[in-house]
Q: What sequence folds into this?
């Protein structure tokens, strides 16, 4: 089942910001490996194999009856269903079962290029009309209107809001023209190829080289080893309309396509339109035979019992050391049966146990910062067990040995019943939460699930079916079965390895093979001792407080309450999202109250604060408390507040509140999380020099705050000065300061929640006052030439930013919203100037930032990645657009193209609790937020060209623009 294929049970919260680029790239394209099935089928409900619709052929998994499946006479498969989340929206997915692995050598990149050309010119949308047309229908380009190409498929995605019969007709008409009758012209190809090359440049750099290099090793001898969807400069520059059309004719055909629609419309009306607009579609010629994706080959002359094969050292001076290896097996089409899925569950159970042991060893002072095991079925090319190791020091061999010792123990001895029970409890909550919240599943997610299932050649099942299969499988989760499956996961045709390192002297390919072939003793010390801990074992926060005031606001019945110790709260109990509760805790003073000389501890706090525990509860204890529960310990820092966040469920709400209150009442200061956070930050820092985009992302935040160090990413020298004692000094004071607001929105019992608040936050001692700071950040003054930063990446890449100062403060909230509309009009013009006309940038961005809780510091900024030679054109384009917006009103069509999508975005978002939580955060302390939210729709959807011009005149002042460029150099 597609859900099980992507399902990854929660493992201990690892501190691992340094993640292997290859695993991100590989795992994003895949699903799990075929496992050894249990001996007996479970007593879960099953369907007769072969009796269901096209998606369920060869499966006994019960069909999700909410979907209606069918096949048109021309071979086009479809799946439609009604879904009202969000109301009024339909999500359309058009899947072409062909990606980069279907290309011949001269066609490399054509599957992705066609995706671009399809949006450029087609039967009903002439050149340049597609983006404006979808925007006028209320769809935001890039989020509501998009497409993606993988090695195995191309998917066009449309999320159309506020559907009506006319909109349905127009949506299917336009989409049919794009898919069945695109127009390939010399002008179109010559216009779009530079845009694709710009996309290639923006994605270039060490991460891409690592991904491509690792793919070449892991899939040596297979097309996937050299087939990136982006293609090559040579093949793209050689593209012609005829060549592109040949690929389109071969694979864009009804018997190779699937259309999926989920949304707030009558399914029969959707089927009628599918038949109307796609029923006459005919393929050109015969369907080509499917390409051979090959299979991993055993090393010549290797040991069948330990088939270690290809290895490669990839030297990237700006990246930390990461060791990856893959146990590879041939990919086979599976029958997606209940027995097969039960085998997947046992596989996942074994992996979860290993990952928990790996994390425990790292926390206890292991030689690696992070390590993990993952099982994937990759692009119909290989079954793989993937292991990644991030060494803590230069001694990568010791780290690999430590990780292999943990794995060796899992292969030598069965896990304990306690270990299995712990992971089964985690599985239970992971499978049960979708059951409890299935009414809130968005149509877009459901449509994506079908396209994913088609791609991996499996089925979909509703959450009740998945949970039923899981529960019926629990008797199969024995120590012997887990050991058997774990051993199967580490057997394969070949084992291949890659090491990413900043120094060529770190090792050779022979060293990598030796590290995997060397004997290793099982490390039983990695097994976590059996113990139990529950919330009833924990001490009370203090003497419970009392509810002293409660008043219902005039907005949706949201309640504002106050406890006897001064803690305030917003409560909104509702059934909009059954089974879900959102919790936000605001306290303290945020960046504004952190002493600039302690800036390094701000960054470390975001990573390590919650891991240091509370009272007698350490990190491992926190994991045990969370076993089988939906609990979070998220922490963030805003300009003027600190924030705890959790997305929980009704049964866990009271304990979630206890966890947050306990952190404030009795913080613990374990040093190891701080030490690990320092190590992770130090390893990650150098990678931020690796590309223009990463330098821009690292530095723009603090530079636009006029160089305030509190917003900066600390460098290794600053990190070296930090220590656990300093961490405790800074954060122990910050946790005691400032008022507290608790916001709880969702499916909960009001009276029980008030009682829980009285026991937790109501029991906190009096708070220290916030210090006066006078914090008023500002955009730096322009100083002539752009500020120049350097990156260590590819010489043909650069980045640029232009920022105009605006304002800040809650009194300017109307203007803040309207500036967002101005930024979007600016963005459309910059997109046209830099991408469509000269192909200099793939995705230039313009955004507005107006801090409502600060008196200043807002800005409207334009950014772009581009070639160094195009920097002048970028700065000239931004100057010209700014001047034009100030000199003349935007056209009514330009206004409509930004206000209609924004109106629809707000309308859709306002059907969920998250929208109101975000808009009203701090509303218990700042009641004016309830007034501000009432005008949000009119502020964003009703603006005149004259008002937009006035804003441009006021803020887009030529002499006020601050400029930055990031260029190659050391």
A:
């Amino acid at each position: 089942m597609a859900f099980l294929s992507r399902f990854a049970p929660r493992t201990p919260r690892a501190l691992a910001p340094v993640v292997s680029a290859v695993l991100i790239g590989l795992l994003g394209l895949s699903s799990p490996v075929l496992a050894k099935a249990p001996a007996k089928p479970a007593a879960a409900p099953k369907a007769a194999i072969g009796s269901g619709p096209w998606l369920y052929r060869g499966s006994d998994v019960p069909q999700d009856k909410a979907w209606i499946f069918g096949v048109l006479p021309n071979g086009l498969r479809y799946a439609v269903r009604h879904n009202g989340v969000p109301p009024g929206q339909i999500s359309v997915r058009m899947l072409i079962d062909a990606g980069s692995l279907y290309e011949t050598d001269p066609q490399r990149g054509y599957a992705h290029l066609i995706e671009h050309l399809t949006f450029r010119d087609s039967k009903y949308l002439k050149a340049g009309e597609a983006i404006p047309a979808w925007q006028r229908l209320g769809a935001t380009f890039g989020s509501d209107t998009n497409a993606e190409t993988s090695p195995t498929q191309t998917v066009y995605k449309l999320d159309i809001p506020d559907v009506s019969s006319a909109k349905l007709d127009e949506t299917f008409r336009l989409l049919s023209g794009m898919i069945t009758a695109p127009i390939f012209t010399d002008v179109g190809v010559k216009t779009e190829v530079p845009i694709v090359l710009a996309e290639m440049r923006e994605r270039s750099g060490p991460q891409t080289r690592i991904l491509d290099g690792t793919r070449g090793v892991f899939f040596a001898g297979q097309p996937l080893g050299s087939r990136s969807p982006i293609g090559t400069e040579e093949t793209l520059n050689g593209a012609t309309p005829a060549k592109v059309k040949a690929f389109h004719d071969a694979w864009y055909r009804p018997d190779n396509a699937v259309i999926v629609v989920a949304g707030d419309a009558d399914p029969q009306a959707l089927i009628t339109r599918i038949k109307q607009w796609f029923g006459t579609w005919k393929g050109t010629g015969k369907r080509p035979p499917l390409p051979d994706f090959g299979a991993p080959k055993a090393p010549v002359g290797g040991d069948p019992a330990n088939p270690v094969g290809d290895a490669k050292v990839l030297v990237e001076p700006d990246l930390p050391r990461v060791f990856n290896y893959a146990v590879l097996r041939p990919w086979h089409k599976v029958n997606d049966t209940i027995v097969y899925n039960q085998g997947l569950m046992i596989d996942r159970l074994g992996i979860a146990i290993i990952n928990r042991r790996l994390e425990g060893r790292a926390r206890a002072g292991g030689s690696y910062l992070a390590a993990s095991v993952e099982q994937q079925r990759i692009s119909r090319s290989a079954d793989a067990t993937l292991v990644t190791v991030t060494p803590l020091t230069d001694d990568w061999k010791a780290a690999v040995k430590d990780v292999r010792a943990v794995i060796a123990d899992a292969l030598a001895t069965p896990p304990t019943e306690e270990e299995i029970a712990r992971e089964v409890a985690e599985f239970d909550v992971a499978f049960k939460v979708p059951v409890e919240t299935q009414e809130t599943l968005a149509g877009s997610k459901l449509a994506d699930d079908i396209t994913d299932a088609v791609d991996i050649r499996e089925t979909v099942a509703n959450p009740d079916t998945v949970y039923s299969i899981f529960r019926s499988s629990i008797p199969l989760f024995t120590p012997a079965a887990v050991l058997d499956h774990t051993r199967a996961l580490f057997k394969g045709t070949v084992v291949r390895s890659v090491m990413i390192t900043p120094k060529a002297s770190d090792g050779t390919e022979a060293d990598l093979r030796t590290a995997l072939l060397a004997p290793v003793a099982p490390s039983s010390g990695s097994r976590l001792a059996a113990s139990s801990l529950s919330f009833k074992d924990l001490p009370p926060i203090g003497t419970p407080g009392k509810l002293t005031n409660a008043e219902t606001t005039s907005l949706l019945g949201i309640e504002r309450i106050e406890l006897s110790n001064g803690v305030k709260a917003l409560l909104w109990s509702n059934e909009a999202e059954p089974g879900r509760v959102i919790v936000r805790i605001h306290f303290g003073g945020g960046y504004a109250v952190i002493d600039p000389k302690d800036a390094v501890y701000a960054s470390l706090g975001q990573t390590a604060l919650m891991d240091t525990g509370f009272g007698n509860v350490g990190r491992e204890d926190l994991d045990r408390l969370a076993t089988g529960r939906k609990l979070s310990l998220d922490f963030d820092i805003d300009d003027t507040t600190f924030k705890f966040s959790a997305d929980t469920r009704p049964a866990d709400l009271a304990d979630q509140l206890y966890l947050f209150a306990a952190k404030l009442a009795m913080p613990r200061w374990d040093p190891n999380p701080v030490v690990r956070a320092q190590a992770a930050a130090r390893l990650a820092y150098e990678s931020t020099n690796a590309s223009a985009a990463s330098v821009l992302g690292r530095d723009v935040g603090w530079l636009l705050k006029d160089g305030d160090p509190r917003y900066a990413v600390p460098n290794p020298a600053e990190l070296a000065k930090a220590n656990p004692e300093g961490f405790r000094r800074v954060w122990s004071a910050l946790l005691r300061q400032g008022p507290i607001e608790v916001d709880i929105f969702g499916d909960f019992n009001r009276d029980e929640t008030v009682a829980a608040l009285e026991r937790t936050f109501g029991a906190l001692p009096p708070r220290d006052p916030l210090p006066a700071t006078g914090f008023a950040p500002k955009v730096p003054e322009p100083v002539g030439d752009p500020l120049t930063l350097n990156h260590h990446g590819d010489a043909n890449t650069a980045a640029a930013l232009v920022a105009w100062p605006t304002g800040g403060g809650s009194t300017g909230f109307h203007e803040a919203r309207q500036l967002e509309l101005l930024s979007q009009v600016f963005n459309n013009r910059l997109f046209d100037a830099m991408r469509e006309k000269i192909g200099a940038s793939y995705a230039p961005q313009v955004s507005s930032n107006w801090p409502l809780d600060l008196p200043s510091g807002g800005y409207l900024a334009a950014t772009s990645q581009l070639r160094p030679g195009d920097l002048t054109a970028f700065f000239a384009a931004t100057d010209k657009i700014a001047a034009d917006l100030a000199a003349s009103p935007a056209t009514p069509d330009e206004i409509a193209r930004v206000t209609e999508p924004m109106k629809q975005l707000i309308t859709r978002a306002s059907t969920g609790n998250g929208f109101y939580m975000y808009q009203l955060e701090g509303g218990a302390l700042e009641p004016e937020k309830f007034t501000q939210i009432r005008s949000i729709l009119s502020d964003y959807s009703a603006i005149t060209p004259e008002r937009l011009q006035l804003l441009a005149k006021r803020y887009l002042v030529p002499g006020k623009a601050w400029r930055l460029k990031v260029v190659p150099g050391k």
